Amino acid sequence: MIREYLSKMKGGAKSPPGVGITEVAWSLLGAVIGVGICGYLSANYFEPRELTLLIGSFGASAVLVYGAIKSPLAQPRNLLGGHVLAGIIGVACYKAFGATPWMAGAIAVSLAIAAMLLTKTLHPPAGATALIAVIGGDKIHNLGFLYAFVPAGLGALILLVVALLVNNLSKNRKYPEYWF
């Protein structure tokens, strides 16, 4: 029984093929524009107003929407729905359990996963969005439920618009695979 359990950890599938330099270039271009726009707007327009438009989970979202564009986890429904839903859950968990941050964080991430699975909006970076709502410090906490929409929703929307524009410039790329 233990041997069977441990044998699962060997894997067995073949490693996926590498990508060509053209795919790398398109992914790089999308990421630098998408994350760059969020960062520029955050620094020049949002932060002077005690807001932000740049959170760590957007780095992981950029990997998906510019580098793994065919993945179900990178599709618009998942990108937008995952971040907004996880943001709402993260803030609610901070408000309910914030006196014990380790517990609030664990509950926020686990509830966000469950909610995304139930709503078909699974987007792994949104797990970080839920956690950031709990551990993000005063600047994030002061946003309250606005956090789910700015930065989480609006930033994801900017990444999406850039993904739509850049990913479709190449004749070999098509994004999205589906909307809903």
Overall domain count: 1
- The H-and-E topology, N to C, reads as HHHHHHHH
Helix content: 55-70%
The coarse silhouette is: flat
Radius of gyration: 18 Å
Low-confidence stretches: none
The largest sheet is: none
> DSSP strand (E) fraction?
under 5%
Please explain how this structure is put together.
The protein has 180 residues and is mainly α. The protein has helices at residues 2-7, 21-46, 57-67, 76-97, 101-119, 125-135, 138-141, 149-167. α3 (57-67) packs parallel to α8 and α5 (101-119) runs antiparallel to α6 (125-135). The protein has one domain (21-167). It has eight helices and no strands.
Write the layout of secondary structure elements.
Blueprint lengths: L1 H6 L13 H26 L10 H11 L8 H22 L3 H19 L5 H11 L2 H4 L7 H19 L13
Defining traits:
180 residues; mainly alpha; 8 helices
Summary of the model, kept short:
The protein has helices at 2-7, 21-46, 57-67, 76-97, 101-119, 125-135, 138-141, 149-167. It is built from 8 helices and no strands.
